[in-house]
From TrEMBL:
Gene3D superfamilies: Ankyrin repeat-containing domain, Transferase(Phosphotransferase) domain 1. Belongs to the protein kinase superfamily. TKL Ser/Thr protein kinase family. This is Protein kinase domain-containing protein. Keywords: ANK repeat, ATP-binding, Kinase, Nucleotide-binding, Transferase. ANK repeats lie at residues 52-84. SUPFAM superfamilies: Ankyrin repeat, Protein kinase-like (PK-like). Residues 139-393 form the Protein kinase domain. It comes from Prunus persica (Peach). One of its GO terms (biological process) is signal transduction. It holds the Pfam family Ank_2.
Amino acid sequence: MKTMGEILSAYCSDDFDMQLIGKFLSFASRGDRVGLNQMLIKGISPDVQDYDNRTALHLAASEGHTPIVELLLCYKANVNLKDRWKRTPLTDARLYGHRDICRILEVNGGNDLTNDQFTVRHEQEDSNDVKFDMSELKTEHSSTIQQGSFSESEKVKWRGTWVVKTVIKRHICNPVKMILSAKDNTRLRELRHPNILQFLGSIVQQEEMVLITEYLPKGNLEDILRQRARLDVHTALRYALDIARGMNYLHEHKPCPIVHNHLDTRNLLQDEGGHLKIGEYWVQMLYEQINPDQNGKRSGNPGNSTNILDGTKKDIRTFGFIYYQMLEGNHFMTDTNSDFIHQEPVDFKPKFHLSRCSYRIQQLIEGCTSNDPSEIPTFESVIGTLEEESASLGRPACPVIC
């Protein structure tokens, strides 16, 4: 068996382990100084990059993690590496208003290579950059995997890195050609959060819609619940925080909120660090693309505040059922086509027979699963409650910018 050092030394070859790079970058994004330092001590380069050529320094600068920036600079991280959009870490620090980090990067030779026209140029250039070439997807040693509820997925290699190729099934919509617009592709590719699956791009091949996403090797929440029936209070709380943080990021996305509408234990995927990431948040866009309303607008148009409100409440309600299942082990949502959680509101009163969760968590789940929209909290409120509960249990949650 290879040691950590031997695996890390393989970064110089074409067969490097992207999962370890993902773990390293996740530490930087989360602000985990201990985890990041351990990997740096074992020999990983501070300048490893993800699919979009973003480094740990890019991510730490974006999230405002000053201690991480300082640590990376101690390990001689390159302050002027550019990502796919020609942005440097200083560009990101300025973009998100982290002035202290800007000063630190400037003192260490950091440059901002963009100009005032960056935002406009970025959207125009990226509409062409998101296109994948099917010939780049290598199927040698590929395997079929389940990474969601609505699609067939296959683990393939792209430019030496394992990714997931997903062929969208027609039955999720209508027998109409499905395609994500260039604008949707750009919007999805720009999303960055430790608790959402990274979307890499899409390909239209004849009558099929093919999506490319990052590969996570440790299965999904349904697999975990199938093996363990139900989770202990601490593990369920940690997973609930992962889900709530990822969903809050999607709901609070500017200028257009992203409603999932299909949250499920099968599209909640576990990463190398044991945290959950949300997948299939793009499925609703496919529905909207081919199901316009009577005025010719997409049915889930972000400009329609009523639809957005209904969708966010539905996502929170689904979250409540999933949290309940993690605690009580009630498998009442295993069939996507007849899911209890995806039906119209029905009478449901959560009863806590098995778990020993606190009264505060019971109240939270009751609020999330309520049929009365006025009683359903926001994900921001959910996160606050979960973090307070985590602190009271003596296990503070990992700091993440939501």
